[in-house]
């Protein structure tokens, strides 16, 4: 049991310069005894209102040095404070506020919300067990207008999809990775590096791009690049929900529409998912 959707803004001041972190937290506990379920005995139950207040107090006292560290702080607090807690899991996601710049100059106290993917993390721990940390990015919308196709797929009497060697590749990406047991990582630096890998693998070189024969291959390229460059990542899951665009037929309007005006296909949409990890992690 626990408390969901604990939303707050943490404001930090360094002289005249302000820093903000707006987050949403979910904190769940499992107790050593199920007596509150089986017997209606609430003597071990930590009220969810107390859970909420603890999260807010930790934000006030410790700040949010990184999402991952804040999730770790929450786990550590419940494990060290309450002997009746057998397991704790914390989820934290961030509202994407970025500092506002005017003519290249960073503003000291103004910010803009940029929806270019939402950062999140999870931390979980069993009593006498290791602290496990996950991190990720979701709602990251990506598009490339060429260098994508889909050909040579299986066909039968139900197949109506034509083969395409040049199409728009567009989708909303969810990516989650595991660090394994928690160590003293620079979580902010690693998250930024992984995000850069995702964008590079999706788009290819800036002057020419890179051909994608399928959404599935693009998913795998993202995973392989992350695992090759970020040694701290043990397992990575990627889900790519596809958005398709159809060319508008303008012949009745006397126009030849050479893939210049397209409309999105809202539903149904395709989805590709894959989990990839290091062999030593799965063997362990």
Describe this structure in words.
This protein is α+β, with helices and mostly antiparallel strands and 284 residues long. It has 2 domains: 1-129, Urate Oxidase; 141-283, Roll (Urate Oxidase). Helix content is 25%, strand content 39%. The chain has 6 helices and 12 strands. It has helices at 35-38, 48-62, 67-81, 187-203, 215-229, 279-283; strands at 2-14, 17-31, 85-94, 97-102, 105-113, 118-126, 131-144, 169-181, 235-242, 244-247, 262-265, 271-277. The strands form 3 sheets. Strands 1-2-3-6-7-8-9-12 form an 8-stranded antiparallel beta sheet. A two-stranded antiparallel ribbon has the order 4-5. Helix 4 (187-203) packs antiparallel against helix 5 (215-229). The chain is globular. It starts with a strand and ends with a helix.
Layout of secondary structure:
Layout: E1 2-14, E2 17-31, H1 35-38, H2 48-62, H3 67-81, E3 85-94, E4 97-102, E5 105-113, E6 118-126, E7 131-144, E8 169-181, H4 187-203, H5 215-229, E9 235-242, E10 244-247, E11 262-265, E12 271-277, H6 279-283
Helix pairs in contact: 4-5
Which features does this protein show?
single chain, 284 residues, alpha+beta, Urate Oxidase, 8-stranded antiparallel beta sheet, two-stranded antiparallel sheet, 12 strands
